[in-house]
Task: structure prediction
Amino acid sequence: MVRRLLTVVLLALSQSCPSALPIVSLSSLSAQTPASPDSTSLRGPRLALFLLPPSVAVAGGFVYANNAPWHAERKPFHLHNGNDFRYALNLDKAGHFYAGAAFADITAAGLASKGMDRRSALWYGAISSTLTQLGFEYKDGLAPDWGFSIYDVAAGALGAFYPWLRERHPPLRETQVKLGYARRSESYWRRKGPDGQLVDDYVNQTYWLSVRLKAILPGAIARRAPGFLRIAAGWSIDETVDGAGGGSHELFLGVDYSLRDLFGRSRSGLLRGLLDVLEYVKLPGPALRLSPTGRSFWLYW
Result:
Protein backbone atom coordinates (compact mmCIF):
# COMPACT_ATOMS: atom_id res chain seq x y z
CA MET A 1 0.00 0.00 0.00
CA VAL A 2 2.79 2.47 0.92
CA ARG A 3 4.61 1.72 -2.33
CA ARG A 4 1.45 2.36 -4.36
CA LEU A 5 0.71 5.56 -2.43
CA LEU A 6 4.19 6.93 -3.11
CA THR A 7 3.79 5.99 -6.77
CA VAL A 8 0.60 8.05 -6.99
CA VAL A 9 2.15 11.06 -5.23
CA LEU A 10 5.12 11.05 -7.62
CA LEU A 11 2.81 10.56 -10.59
CA ALA A 12 0.69 13.47 -9.43
CA LEU A 13 3.68 15.79 -9.25
CA SER A 14 5.22 14.66 -12.54
CA GLN A 15 2.07 14.23 -14.64
CA SER A 16 3.08 16.72 -17.31
CA CYS A 17 6.75 15.76 -17.73
CA PRO A 18 8.58 12.72 -16.39
CA SER A 19 11.91 14.51 -16.22
CA ALA A 20 10.96 17.39 -13.91
CA LEU A 21 9.62 17.38 -10.37
CA PRO A 22 8.88 20.58 -8.44
CA ILE A 23 10.95 21.28 -5.36
CA VAL A 24 8.42 21.47 -2.55
CA SER A 25 8.69 21.91 1.20
CA LEU A 26 5.80 19.93 2.64
CA SER A 27 5.76 22.06 5.75
CA SER A 28 5.17 25.16 3.63
CA LEU A 29 1.95 23.74 2.20
CA SER A 30 0.12 24.36 5.47
CA ALA A 31 2.13 27.31 6.74
CA GLN A 32 -0.11 29.75 8.57
CA THR A 33 2.06 32.80 7.97
CA PRO A 34 -0.08 35.94 8.28
CA ALA A 35 -0.33 38.06 5.15
CA SER A 36 2.26 40.83 5.22
CA PRO A 37 1.30 44.52 4.78
CA ASP A 38 2.58 44.16 1.22
CA SER A 39 0.54 41.02 0.63
CA THR A 40 -0.08 41.20 -3.12
CA SER A 41 3.27 42.13 -4.71
CA LEU A 42 5.40 39.61 -6.56
CA ARG A 43 8.93 40.43 -5.45
CA GLY A 44 12.02 38.75 -4.06
CA PRO A 45 11.41 35.20 -2.79
CA ARG A 46 7.83 35.30 -4.09
CA LEU A 47 9.04 36.04 -7.61
CA ALA A 48 11.54 33.18 -7.33
CA LEU A 49 8.78 30.79 -6.25
CA PHE A 50 6.56 32.04 -9.08
CA LEU A 51 9.26 31.45 -11.69
CA LEU A 52 10.58 28.16 -10.32
CA PRO A 53 8.00 25.71 -11.79
CA PRO A 54 8.03 27.20 -15.34
CA SER A 55 11.83 27.33 -15.28
CA VAL A 56 12.08 23.71 -14.17
CA ALA A 57 9.53 22.76 -16.85
CA VAL A 58 11.48 24.44 -19.65
CA ALA A 59 14.85 23.10 -18.47
CA GLY A 60 13.40 19.64 -17.86
CA GLY A 61 11.78 19.66 -21.28
CA PHE A 62 15.10 20.39 -22.99
CA VAL A 63 16.90 17.73 -20.94
CA TYR A 64 14.20 15.21 -21.76
CA ALA A 65 14.20 16.09 -25.47
CA ASN A 66 17.97 15.71 -25.61
CA ASN A 67 17.86 12.27 -23.97
CA ALA A 68 14.63 10.85 -25.39
CA PRO A 69 14.74 7.75 -27.62
CA TRP A 70 13.57 9.96 -30.50
CA HIS A 71 16.32 12.56 -29.99
CA ALA A 72 18.06 11.73 -33.28
CA GLU A 73 14.75 12.13 -35.14
CA ARG A 74 13.57 15.31 -33.43
CA LYS A 75 11.90 17.89 -35.65
CA PRO A 76 11.68 21.67 -35.58
CA PHE A 77 8.93 22.93 -33.30
CA HIS A 78 5.52 22.03 -34.74
CA LEU A 79 1.87 21.77 -33.73
CA HIS A 80 0.04 18.54 -33.14
CA ASN A 81 -2.07 17.71 -36.19
CA GLY A 82 -2.87 14.05 -35.72
CA ASN A 83 -4.93 12.02 -33.26
CA ASP A 84 -5.08 14.58 -30.46
CA PHE A 85 -8.70 13.71 -29.62
CA ARG A 86 -8.25 9.97 -30.08
CA TYR A 87 -5.12 9.34 -28.05
CA ALA A 88 -6.08 7.81 -24.67
CA LEU A 89 -9.71 8.70 -25.47
CA ASN A 90 -8.96 12.20 -24.10
CA LEU A 91 -8.11 10.91 -20.63
CA ASP A 92 -4.79 12.69 -21.13
CA LYS A 93 -6.74 15.97 -21.01
CA ALA A 94 -7.91 15.03 -17.52
CA GLY A 95 -4.27 14.43 -16.67
CA HIS A 96 -3.29 17.91 -17.85
CA PHE A 97 -6.19 19.48 -15.92
CA TYR A 98 -5.15 17.60 -12.80
CA ALA A 99 -1.48 18.54 -13.13
CA GLY A 100 -2.40 22.19 -13.69
CA ALA A 101 -4.44 22.24 -10.49
CA ALA A 102 -1.76 20.48 -8.45
CA PHE A 103 1.06 22.77 -9.60
CA ALA A 104 -1.08 25.87 -9.01
CA ASP A 105 -1.99 24.77 -5.49
CA ILE A 106 1.60 23.94 -4.57
CA THR A 107 2.92 27.22 -5.95
CA ALA A 108 0.18 29.18 -4.19
CA ALA A 109 1.04 27.47 -0.90
CA GLY A 110 4.64 28.52 -1.31
CA LEU A 111 3.65 32.13 -2.04
CA ALA A 112 1.31 32.18 0.96
CA SER A 113 4.14 30.93 3.16
CA LYS A 114 6.00 34.12 2.16
CA GLY A 115 3.19 36.39 3.39
CA MET A 116 1.08 36.76 0.26
CA ASP A 117 -2.68 36.79 0.80
CA ARG A 118 -4.43 33.60 -0.28
CA ARG A 119 -6.41 34.91 -3.26
CA SER A 120 -3.40 36.67 -4.74
CA ALA A 121 -1.30 33.56 -4.15
CA LEU A 122 -3.85 31.38 -5.97
CA TRP A 123 -4.02 33.86 -8.86
CA TYR A 124 -0.26 33.93 -9.32
CA GLY A 125 -0.16 30.16 -8.77
CA ALA A 126 -2.61 29.75 -11.66
CA ILE A 127 -0.47 31.89 -13.98
CA SER A 128 2.72 30.10 -12.93
CA SER A 129 1.09 26.70 -13.48
CA THR A 130 -0.18 27.74 -16.94
CA LEU A 131 3.35 28.81 -17.92
CA THR A 132 4.56 25.47 -16.55
CA GLN A 133 2.12 23.63 -18.80
CA LEU A 134 3.45 25.61 -21.77
CA GLY A 135 7.00 24.68 -20.81
CA PHE A 136 6.19 20.99 -20.54
CA GLU A 137 4.24 20.97 -23.79
CA TYR A 138 7.11 22.58 -25.68
CA LYS A 139 9.06 19.32 -25.58
CA ASP A 140 6.17 17.58 -27.36
CA GLY A 141 6.49 20.16 -30.11
CA LEU A 142 9.93 18.73 -30.90
CA ALA A 143 8.93 15.05 -30.92
CA PRO A 144 8.59 13.43 -34.37
CA ASP A 145 5.38 11.54 -33.58
CA TRP A 146 3.66 14.18 -31.42
CA GLY A 147 3.50 17.96 -31.56
CA PHE A 148 2.59 20.94 -29.43
CA SER A 149 -1.07 20.49 -28.46
CA ILE A 150 -3.09 23.64 -27.89
CA TYR A 151 -5.82 21.51 -26.34
CA ASP A 152 -3.44 19.94 -23.81
CA VAL A 153 -2.30 23.42 -22.77
CA ALA A 154 -5.92 24.60 -22.55
CA ALA A 155 -6.82 21.66 -20.30
CA GLY A 156 -3.81 22.40 -18.11
CA ALA A 157 -4.71 26.10 -17.91
CA LEU A 158 -8.29 25.28 -16.88
CA GLY A 159 -6.89 23.08 -14.14
CA ALA A 160 -4.47 25.81 -13.09
CA PHE A 161 -7.34 28.22 -12.42
CA TYR A 162 -9.47 25.60 -10.66
CA PRO A 163 -7.99 26.30 -7.16
CA TRP A 164 -8.49 30.05 -7.68
CA LEU A 165 -12.10 29.56 -8.81
CA ARG A 166 -12.68 27.19 -5.90
CA GLU A 167 -11.58 29.89 -3.47
CA ARG A 168 -13.91 32.48 -5.01
CA HIS A 169 -17.02 30.28 -5.32
CA PRO A 170 -18.08 28.51 -2.08
CA PRO A 171 -19.83 25.54 -3.78
CA LEU A 172 -16.58 24.64 -5.53
CA ARG A 173 -14.78 24.54 -2.19
CA GLU A 174 -16.59 21.29 -1.49
CA THR A 175 -14.92 19.64 -4.52
CA GLN A 176 -11.48 18.16 -5.05
CA VAL A 177 -9.81 16.56 -8.09
CA LYS A 178 -7.91 13.38 -7.34
CA LEU A 179 -5.86 10.71 -9.06
CA GLY A 180 -5.78 6.99 -8.40
CA TYR A 181 -3.13 4.69 -9.88
CA ALA A 182 -2.81 0.92 -9.60
CA ARG A 183 -1.07 -1.37 -12.07
CA ARG A 184 -4.02 -3.66 -12.76
CA SER A 185 -3.24 -4.18 -16.45
CA GLU A 186 0.00 -4.83 -18.34
CA SER A 187 -1.42 -3.89 -21.76
CA TYR A 188 0.38 -0.55 -21.99
CA TRP A 189 3.70 -2.00 -20.84
CA ARG A 190 3.44 -4.91 -23.29
CA ARG A 191 3.05 -2.39 -26.14
CA LYS A 192 5.74 0.03 -25.04
CA GLY A 193 8.27 -2.26 -23.39
CA PRO A 194 11.30 -0.43 -21.93
CA ASP A 195 10.20 2.83 -23.58
CA GLY A 196 7.03 2.97 -21.48
CA GLN A 197 6.52 5.85 -19.04
CA LEU A 198 4.42 5.88 -15.92
CA VAL A 199 2.69 9.13 -16.87
CA ASP A 200 1.47 7.60 -20.14
CA ASP A 201 0.02 4.48 -18.52
CA TYR A 202 -3.52 5.84 -18.73
CA VAL A 203 -5.11 2.39 -18.59
CA ASN A 204 -4.11 2.18 -14.93
CA GLN A 205 -4.98 5.77 -14.03
CA THR A 206 -8.37 6.93 -12.77
CA TYR A 207 -9.24 10.61 -12.37
CA TRP A 208 -11.83 11.52 -9.76
CA LEU A 209 -13.99 14.49 -8.86
CA SER A 210 -14.66 14.17 -5.15
CA VAL A 211 -17.45 16.07 -3.35
CA ARG A 212 -17.98 16.45 0.38
CA LEU A 213 -21.03 14.43 1.34
CA LYS A 214 -22.34 17.13 3.67
CA ALA A 215 -22.59 19.50 0.68
CA ILE A 216 -25.07 17.36 -1.26
CA LEU A 217 -27.20 15.79 1.47
CA PRO A 218 -30.38 17.46 2.79
CA GLY A 219 -30.03 19.52 5.97
CA ALA A 220 -30.89 17.10 8.76
CA ILE A 221 -28.95 14.23 7.23
CA ALA A 222 -26.03 16.47 6.30
CA ARG A 223 -25.60 17.56 9.92
CA ARG A 224 -25.13 13.93 10.96
CA ALA A 225 -22.78 12.96 8.14
CA PRO A 226 -19.07 12.74 9.03
CA GLY A 227 -17.20 15.79 7.76
CA PHE A 228 -14.41 13.70 6.26
CA LEU A 229 -16.69 11.52 4.13
CA ARG A 230 -16.98 12.15 0.38
CA ILE A 231 -18.44 10.65 -2.76
CA ALA A 232 -16.45 10.64 -5.98
CA ALA A 233 -17.08 10.16 -9.71
CA GLY A 234 -14.21 8.51 -11.57
CA TRP A 235 -13.08 8.33 -15.21
CA SER A 236 -10.64 5.87 -16.73
CA ILE A 237 -10.14 3.77 -19.91
CA ASP A 238 -9.98 0.02 -20.41
CA GLU A 239 -7.07 -2.06 -21.66
CA THR A 240 -8.44 -2.31 -25.21
CA VAL A 241 -7.43 1.31 -25.89
CA ASP A 242 -5.03 1.38 -28.83
CA GLY A 243 -4.06 5.05 -29.02
CA ALA A 244 -5.97 5.57 -32.27
CA GLY A 245 -9.53 5.86 -30.97
CA GLY A 246 -10.25 2.24 -30.08
CA GLY A 247 -11.28 1.12 -26.60
CA SER A 248 -13.87 2.14 -24.03
CA HIS A 249 -14.31 4.72 -21.32
CA GLU A 250 -14.78 3.47 -17.77
CA LEU A 251 -16.99 5.42 -15.35
CA PHE A 252 -17.02 4.86 -11.59
CA LEU A 253 -18.84 5.99 -8.47
CA GLY A 254 -16.93 5.51 -5.26
CA VAL A 255 -16.62 6.29 -1.58
CA ASP A 256 -13.89 8.78 -0.74
CA TYR A 257 -12.58 10.46 2.39
CA SER A 258 -10.31 13.30 3.39
CA LEU A 259 -7.39 12.58 5.70
CA ARG A 260 -6.94 16.34 6.08
CA ASP A 261 -10.41 16.62 7.59
CA LEU A 262 -9.55 13.77 9.95
CA PHE A 263 -6.07 14.82 11.05
CA GLY A 264 -5.62 18.37 9.75
CA ARG A 265 -5.62 19.93 13.23
CA SER A 266 -2.21 18.46 13.97
CA ARG A 267 0.40 20.91 15.21
CA SER A 268 2.98 19.34 12.92
CA GLY A 269 3.51 21.50 9.83
CA LEU A 270 5.11 18.53 8.07
CA LEU A 271 2.05 16.35 8.71
CA ARG A 272 -0.35 19.09 7.58
CA GLY A 273 1.71 19.59 4.42
CA LEU A 274 1.65 15.87 3.67
CA LEU A 275 -2.12 15.81 4.20
CA ASP A 276 -2.49 18.71 1.74
CA VAL A 277 -0.59 16.72 -0.90
CA LEU A 278 -2.68 13.61 -0.19
CA GLU A 279 -5.85 15.60 -0.91
CA TYR A 280 -4.89 15.13 -4.57
CA VAL A 281 -4.62 11.34 -4.17
CA LYS A 282 -7.64 9.02 -4.34
CA LEU A 283 -7.41 6.65 -1.40
CA PRO A 284 -8.86 3.11 -1.48
CA GLY A 285 -12.59 2.76 -0.93
CA PRO A 286 -15.66 0.83 -2.15
CA ALA A 287 -16.63 1.66 -5.74
CA LEU A 288 -19.01 0.73 -8.53
CA ARG A 289 -18.04 0.63 -12.17
CA LEU A 290 -21.01 1.97 -14.10
CA SER A 291 -19.66 1.68 -17.65
CA PRO A 292 -18.95 -0.11 -19.97
CA THR A 293 -20.07 -2.99 -17.72
CA GLY A 294 -21.24 -2.99 -14.15
CA ARG A 295 -18.97 -4.31 -11.42
CA SER A 296 -18.47 -3.66 -7.72
CA PHE A 297 -15.15 -3.37 -5.90
CA TRP A 298 -14.52 -3.54 -2.19
CA LEU A 299 -11.48 -1.34 -2.66
CA TYR A 300 -10.72 0.81 -5.70
CA TRP A 301 -8.76 3.99 -6.29
User: Anything to note?
Assistant: Residues 1-12+37-168 form one domain. The chain has two domains: 1-12+37-168, 174-301. The two ends are 11 Å apart (CA to CA).
